[in-house]
Amino acid sequence: MKKILVLMLTLVTALSLTACGGSKDSKETSGKASSEDSDIAYVKDKGTLVVGITDFEPMDYKDESGEWIGFDADMAKAFAESLGVKAEFVEIDWDNKIMELDGKTIDCVWNGMTLTDEVTSSMSCSNAYCNNAQIVIVPKDKADKYQDKDSLSDLTFAVEAGSAGEEQVKALDLNYTAVKAQADALMEVAAGTSDAAVIDSLMAAAMVGEGTSYADLTYTVGLNNEEYGVGFRKGSDLTEALNEFFSSSHKDGSMTTCAETYGVQAAVIEQ
Predict the structure, then answer these.
(1) CB of 125 within 8 A of CB of 229?
(2) Which of 3, 7, 183, 254 has its C-alpha lying 20 to 30 A from 163's C-alpha?
(3) Domain 134-224: which topology?
(4) Alpha carbons 196 and 208: distance in angstroms, whole number
């Protein structure tokens, strides 16, 4: 009996040692994979941070020379520089942003992106850096009729496909047409092909009302309050690098200076 117990203990010890050896190999392999999968290393190796955007003033838009500027664009350039690479901007179909990110055609989504449940479950997201809201845009001469949510039921809306605006009109069970970008939603209202649009409040402040391209439009009902974040691939080490960059740029004042350039300083969240 003793001989059998000794034999069993010997076998258990041998199996344990084998398992421990396997565990060590697994950790080493895992560590190697982690290094290979580093987005920071990937970005540095190719020399560019590819940023997925849409035309969205004051966050990402082109100046007269065709260069991408805006609060998000300028901050993305500064972050890329901190990594020792250049920012490259690619216009994407907003409804396909997650697919573009996972397919590595872009390295991040940095375009006044609302931190919705869909976004936070599909991406590795930075800390929130700007406050925002979804608001209703209507022709100025009809604004008095639409001052609360109950007054919106008979309107037809234009909203950006895959946006927080689309989420809001769906939640309110409103009639809408999905368009490619928020700028297109404004054009729909200006042309009279839609009664109203739902867009970001930061965009509305820059593009709607007196002194803008849409002087005959105005904003009325606020539908929610929300926050912007930047999205990376799940597990990306770029997320923490950006959080550290946000923190340092807020402390040294460069984030505030950049925000003031585009009139969004009141929306910036302390890091």
Answers:
(1) yes
(2) 254
(3) D-Maltodextrin-Binding Protein; domain 2 (3.40.190)
(4) 13
Query: What value does the mean pLDDT take over residues 180-192?
Result: 96
Q: Are strands 48-53 and 156-160 parallel, antiparallel or unpaired?
A: unpaired
**Tell me, what's the pLDDT at 36?**
62
Amino acid at 58: P
Domain boundaries, the chain: 1-36, 39-129+227-267, 134-224
> Which helix (H) or strand (E) segment is 53 a member of?
strand 48-53
C-alpha to C-alpha distance for 110 and 124, rounded to whole angstroms: 12
What six digits make up the tokens of 231? 């999205």
Beta-bridge mates of residue 197: 137, 158
Other CB atoms within 10 A of residue 21 CB: 10
- CB count within 10 Å of CB 3 equals 7
pLDDT tens sequence across 92-122 = 999 999 999 999 999 999 999 999 999 999 9
pLDDT tens sequence across 195-254:
999 999 999 999 999 999 899 999 999 999 999 999 999 999 999 999 999 999 999 999
Q: Which CATH class is domain 39-129+227-267?
A: alpha beta
CB 91 within 8 A of CB 181: no
Residue 48's H or E segment, with its range, is: strand 48-53
What global pTM score does this model have?
0.81
Instruction: Please determine, for residue 4, whether its predicted confidence score (pLDDT) is greater than 70.
Output: no
